[in-house]
Amino acid sequence: MAARKSASSDVTRIPHVVVPPPGPKSKEMHARCTTYFKGLSGQVKLFPVVFESGEGCLLRDVDGNTYLDFSSGIYVATLGHCHPKVSEAIAKAAHTLMNCHDFTTPIKTALVEKLADVLPGDLNGFQFYDSGTTAVEAGLRVLRAATNHQEMISCFYDYHGKTYGGVSLGHVRSFVYGPTRAPGFHMVPRPDVYRPMWTKDDGTIDTDKYIEFYDEYIDKATVHDVAAFILEPIQGWGGSIMPPDDFFPKLRKFCDENCILLMADEVLTSWGRTGKWLCMEHWDVVPDVVAIGKGFGNGFPVTCVAVREPYRESFESISASSSYGGNPMACAAALASIEVIEEENLLERSMHLGELAIKRMAKMKDDHPIVGDVRAKGCLMGIELVKDRATKEPFDEAGKMVYQKAFAKGLAWIPAGHILRMSPPIVMSDELLLKGLDIIDEAIGETEKQLC
Question: Of these four, 112, 390, 393, 421, which has the most CB atoms within 10 Å of its CB?
Answer without folding.
Answer: 421
